[in-house]
Predict the structure.
Amino acid sequence: MIPQALIARHPEFEQKLKELDLLKAEYANQWNNRQVLMEWSKPHLEALYYARIGELQIELLQLQAETFAAKRKLEMMQAAINRNEEINLPYIELMVELEMQEQLKKIDEEISKLGKAKNLLANLDSPKRSAELRKIFREMAKELHPDINPDLSGSAKNLWNAATKAYEDGDLESLRALRLLVSDVKNKTEEFTNENVLLTQINLLKEGINRLLEEIENIRTVFPFTFEKQINDDAWVNEQRTTLKKEMEATTQQKLQYENSVSLMIQSLDL
């Protein structure tokens, strides 16, 4: 342990201060990497996926729902006949509609995602603008992120929240303005005069960096990152579209068969 009286001037302590500064920068960098994945890469990959494949997937889901409805209507009508009961078409149609709620909800969610994807792709930032947005936010994270700077003032915390919102909204102009305020509101870095406090901060940052690296690795193992290479491969996209169209054709034929059977049963029973 370095004597307290010499700690501020001891070379080993100075080295630890440099290490702390490097760890702060690395934490800010990895935190920014995670944010880029979640706030930029993820929505853009999802948008590309839905734009190239998602629309056909939604059409297939709609066809499958319509086929399910026709099949269930036929099954309920046949079940009533088997029980020698009168067929109540309005009741059967209501029951089928209730059974389809989850499917319809899923379709609505997919339609919403497709709409967001088209909107995002129609309003893409230029690469230069996006790079500047991420650069400014990474710089501000080093100065204002609570994990790196545990003793921020209330004003600094408010500034960090505003910067985070501007980054998530892609508001480069606001982020540029907020950057100018950092030096005015951030508390000066704590002057470490206790070696234990310094070492604790170093260890916390090391643990935080490891946690962020693990989170980044996990993020890359789920959709849409699992399709990152394929969605940019025209041959793969065309193959998927061909497969979806074939499924749609088969589902359409199945739907027509059920609907024809329902119509014939209605005609035969004079309903």
